[in-house]
Amino acid sequence: MNAPRRTPLSVTTVALALTFGTLILGTPASATETPTNSGDADTNQEGGSDGKGIYAAASVQYSGAVTKNGGAGNVASADVNWTPPPCWYAPYMGAKDFKKKMSGNIDSWKNNPDITGSAGSAIGEVERHYEDDYGWTDTPGYKDYNVDKDGEGMFWAGVENPNEPDYLKRTSCSDLPFWVDNGEPPPPQHEEAITPEMLSALAYQHMELPGTKVTLAPEAITKVNLPTWAWLDQAVFDEVQATAAINAPGFNIQATTTAKPKSLTLSPGTADATTIPADGGCPIVDGKIGEPYAKGKAKETPPCGIIYRRSSGGETVPLKAALTWEISWTGTGQAGAIGMPDGTIEATQNITVEEIQSVNR
Fold first, then answer.
1. Residue 75 and residue 83: Cα distance in Å, rounded?
2. CA-to-CA distance for 178 and 158, rounded, in angstroms?
3. pLDDT score of 358
4. pLDDT tens string 318-330
5. What is the C-alpha separation between 141 and 177, in angstroms, rounded?
């Protein structure tokens, strides 16, 4: 029977137990095994909370143009306020497996002499919640861990994003594991339950795009007041895709994030220079950025380039080239592509600027 208007119980409620390091479910084998993915990469997203939280068995599987070690990719969002999810809720275990795992841990906690007082009471409430149908407003309890519904759904649990630097944000998905029937959405109070849109943001975060190597003419040593031509190899302009997916019994969603080159911005590395165009932004025209230099064009104005106005005095200046990519995503339940903030990749090339040597006759 559910107790009305009860303060919601969560991992935060049993914080005293956590401080003893006793609420350790461990990582299920399926969360640590590397999944088999299609595409060029084979990375794995584990759940967990530094050995003290609840782990989700349904790992995020990445494929396509993503980092191979599970770390963040090389794309920076053009929107400083855009961030991928710091944590989320995902399928964890079926009822019978969850009962075996959780009941075993509860027995261990109850027999631990260090867990007393408020922490001991909290453990007792956790046991009642899963065994004796003890719940509260908007959060039903469970009778014998829902084992009579085994195979008809799964318990969901919190997962940290290991690439989120803010510890409080990373560990904020702290609700106790909750049941979700197959084919049904998670309870609405769990706003961080994984969605295709969240997967698209994770694919964006892990995306690995080609480096921005600008071809220059002259290549590394240029002259004062002579145009330096800049262009990008047309091979750079293929669109790039990264996919993130979760596949669990009764729950399968995915999202593919696509990046297309949009424009190149040049920063000469010194105030004594003029960019072409004036704002430094070289757009894509007819599928290319800039124009390759050809013999006889030394004094012509390039469509994309820089004119240095002063010698670098034997030193070098850092020419920065930032390639902007237009980002969108498609995924489960979406009829068409949805726009996301542009992404950028920046590269620096060191340029020496020399005076033009004249000969007096």
1. 12
2. 10
3. 54
4. 999 888 999 999 9
5. 11
Instruction: Pick the closest to residue 88 from 5, 194, 189 (CA basis).
Output: 194
How many Å apart are CA 127 and CA 115, to the nearest integer? 15
For residues 161 and 169, what is the distance between their CA atoms, to the nearest angstrom?
A: 9
Q: Which residue has the tokens 């590394």?
A: 220
Cα 66 → chain centroid: 10
Q: How many CA atoms lie within 13 A of 44 on its CB side?
A: 14
The pTM score is: 0.80
Bond preceding residue 218 cis, omega within 30 of 0: yes
Count of CB atoms situated within 10 Å of the CB of 264: 23
CA distance 9 to 129: 9
CB 55 within 8 A of CB 31: yes
What type of residue sits at position 160?
A: E
143 strand-pairing partners: 132
CA–CA gap between residue 167 and residue 89 (Å, rounded): 17
Please list, in sequence order, all residues whose beta carbon lies within 8 angstroms of the beta carbon of residue 250, skipping any fewer than 6 positions away: 152, 153, 154, 181, 182, 183
Closest-CA residue to 58 (of 180, 171, 156, 191): 156
| 3-class secondary structure per residue, 282-329 | EECECCECECCCCCCCCCCCCCCEEEECCCCCCCCEEEEEEEEEEEEE
b (16+ CB within 10 A) / e for 220-251: eebbbeebbbbbbeeebbeebbbbbbbebeeb
**Closest to 139 measured CA to CA, from 176, 104, 181, 106:** 176
Q: Is 306 helix (H, G, I), strand (E, B) or coil?
A: strand
Q: Is-cis flag, bond preceding 84, omega within 30? A: no
| Binned average pLDDT, 10 residues per bin, the chain of 361 residues | 41 38 32 29 39 57 90 92 95 93 91 86 92 90 96 93 94 93 93 96 94 83 90 77 93 95 90 92 84 86 93 92 93 93 91 75 43
Distance from the first to the final alpha carbon of the chain? 105
